[in-house]
Design goal:
mainly alpha; Arc Repressor Mutant, subunit A; three-stranded antiparallel beta sheet
Length: 252
């Protein structure tokens, strides 16, 4: 693929960029006759010019096959990191109409994960989500059923096991994003008393910085990547609570 994009991207070019001793060594690695040395992993990944998330994943994957992973401890750490990264990859994009309450939709869908076997009755769901009007919950249920994210059987609703979905990667319109943010900020204001009651469970922090715009733009790219990673690390298949995870960074 790189060769198609850039005709000069040859094995000789790659050998020079990575700092390998010879093209023959690179050929042996590609054909599986030799293992790549750990010191060449990062330079090799760097030449492919991948998205940061993809590059990070490939680097961990390649390191597993090098002398770097000789120690069981290091190998276990790499496997744990890969498990988190792979979970972030497994997601689908949900297209919703502008009149859909995405804030409510996400709360309703994720609430199913708090119940045994990820299934609930209408009554239990309404009781769990007392912060939402009953009519809003019912509308969200209908949208989720239409999208196939949940299924209904014998008057019980359940997460569709054939769908693996993350609202983190959903594509919303600008209008939906604004409404979602407004509602999440309003919710945060309502939760401010928790800051005094459970300081070890709540984080409310805000700062104003003087920055260089060029450095700020690069920093935003890093934050977006870190946000996906933190989300995947914290997310659990056997949860017992919902947590609001807000990150708001913008120029003044």
């Amino acid at each position: 693929m790189k060769k198609m994009e850039q005709p000069s991207f040859t094995k000789n070019y790659l050998t020079r960029k990575v700092g390998l001793g010879s093209r023959a060594y690179l050929t042996d690695v590609f054909k599986g006759r030799k293992k790549l040395s750990a010191r060449f992993v990062r330079p090799l990944v760097g030449t492919l010019d991948l998205e940061p998330f993809e590059a990070h994943y490939l680097e961990k994957k390649l390191l597993l096959e090098t002398e770097y992973a000789k120690s069981p401890t290091v190998r276990d750490e790499l496997l744990a990191d890969l498990a988190v990264l792979e979970k972030s990859f497994r997601s689908m994009t949900l297209t919703v109409e502008d009149n859909t309450d995405v804030y409510a939709l996400s709360l309703v869908y994720l609430s199913f994960f708090l119940f045994p076997q990820r299934q609930s009755s209408h009554r239990d769901l309404l009781k769990t989500l007392e912060i939402l009007p009953a009519a809003t919950i019912e509308r969200s249920i209908q949208v989720l059923l239409q999208k196939g994210l949940i299924v209904e059987h014998d008057h019980r609703l359940a997460v569709n096991p054939e769908k693996d979905f993350s609202f983190l990667n959903a594509q919303y319109s600008v209008q939906q994003e604004a409404v979602y943010l407004q509602k999440s900020i309003a919710e945060s204001i309502d939760r401010l008393p928790l800051l005094q009651q459970n300081r070890d469970e709540v984080v409310f922090h805000s700062s104003i910085l003087t920055v260089r715009r060029s450095a700020y733009r690069e920093f935003i790219k890093t934050i977006k990547q870190d946000f996906r990673t933190y989300h995947a690390e914290l997310d659990d298949h056997n949860p017992d609570t919902l947590v609001r995870f807000n990150v708001q960074i913008y120029p003044l």
